């Protein structure tokens, strides 16, 4: 039997290393809400929200793993990102525990990506969405 993965078991990289991974065949999995994703996202990203905002507060997407499997098909090389890195870290733990082997958390999330000018010409503040998902 294998040990359950925890946040400290997740490989995390900065945005530049994430960009390199994306250039070498990894796929970007954006786990922000669809509203955040629609505002701006990494080119060719897949979007599967890890959490939803409801009247009761934030709720984990109960279909997250099923939805990732349906959109990523056989892809096991994923860079996972959210707004600042919290949701993506938790999503990576779930993916590792579901049997994915090559998942990497992008530290700083899409906010760091936009802050460093990797998201395009617009000012970073126009591209980012501030969320309430921080732990």
Automatic annotation (TrEMBL):
The name this protein goes by in its record: Rhodanese-like domain-containing protein
């Amino acid at each position: 039997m294998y040990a359950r993965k925890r946040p400290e078991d997740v490989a995390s990289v900065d945005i530049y290393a994430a960009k390199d991974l994306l250039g070498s065949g990894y796929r970007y999995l954006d786990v922000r809400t669809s509203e955040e994703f629609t505002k701006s996202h990494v080119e060719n990203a897949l979007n599967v929200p890890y959490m939803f905002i409801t009247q009761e507060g934030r709720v984990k997407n109960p279909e997250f793993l099923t939805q990732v499997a349906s959109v990523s098909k056989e892809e096991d090389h994923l860079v996972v990102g959210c707004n600042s890195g919290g949701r993506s870290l938790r999503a990576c733990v779930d993916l590792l525990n579901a049997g994915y082997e090559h998942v990497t958390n992008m530290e700083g999330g899409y906010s760091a990506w936009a802050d460093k000018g990797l998201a395009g010409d617009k000012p970073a503040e126009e591209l980012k969405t501030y969320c309430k998902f921080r732990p």
